[in-house]
């Protein structure tokens, strides 16, 4: 069985400076931009130049920093807010809390969420 599977595979060798595509599974990655139907989002990103070879099969890519999302120290992705659409008062326990409807940058309008106003 293994011999049949290995017939279709080929060992690729890359050098520093070669351009390669980065394969991602967007429906499994939370760090990528949210789309309406993630199954139809692109699976390959790039091309990116190889910056360093790490071992025989691993390479380090020179990925542009503007394409990477900002990350907080806790590990969650920092998303920029674009507009505040509405505001409301809700009761949380014995206190009245102000919430605002936030439309996030680079997302669809229906992805707007109610967030606590602090």
Description:
It comes from Gossypium australe. Keywords: Nucleotidyltransferase, RNA-directed DNA polymerase, Transferase. The chain has one helix at 2-7, and strands at 19-23, 44-54, 58-61, 70-71, 77-78, 81-92, 95-104, 113-116. It has 118 residues and is mainly beta. The relative contact order is 0.14. The mean pLDDT is 79. The longest helix has 6 residues, at 2-7. It has 2 domains: 14-69, no CATH class; 79-118, no CATH class. A 3-stranded antiparallel beta sheet has the order 1-2-3, with no helix packed on it. A 3-stranded antiparallel beta sheet has the order 6-7-8, with no helix packed on it. The protein has a two-stranded antiparallel sheet with strand order 4-5. Strand 6 and strand 7 form a beta hairpin.
- Give average pLDDT, whole number: 79
The quaternary structure here is single chain
Please compute the radius of gyration using only Cα atoms.
Answer: 22 Å
Q: Within the largest sheet, what's the order of strands?
A: 1-2-3
Gross morphology: elongated
Write the layout of secondary structure elements.
Blueprint: H1 2-7, E1 19-23, E2 44-54, E3 58-61, E4 70-71, E5 77-78, E6 81-92, E7 95-104, E8 113-116
Antiparallel strand pairs: 1-2, 2-3, 4-5, 6-7, 7-8
């Amino acid at each position: 069985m293994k011999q049949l599977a290995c017939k279709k595979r080929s060992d690729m060798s890359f050098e520093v400076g070669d351009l390669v595509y980065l394969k991602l599974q967007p429906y499994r990655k939370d760090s990528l931009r949210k789309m309406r139907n993630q199954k139809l989002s692109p699976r390959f990103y790039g091309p990116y130049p190889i910056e360093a070879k790490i071992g025989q099969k691993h390479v380090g890519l020179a990925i542009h920093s503007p394409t990477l999302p900002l990350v907080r120290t806790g590990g969650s992705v920092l998303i920029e807010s674009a507009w505040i659409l509405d505001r409301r008062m809700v009761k949380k326990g014995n206190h009245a809390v102000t919430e605002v409807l936030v439309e996030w940058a680079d997302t669809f309008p229906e992805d707007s969420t109610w967030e606590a106003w602090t």
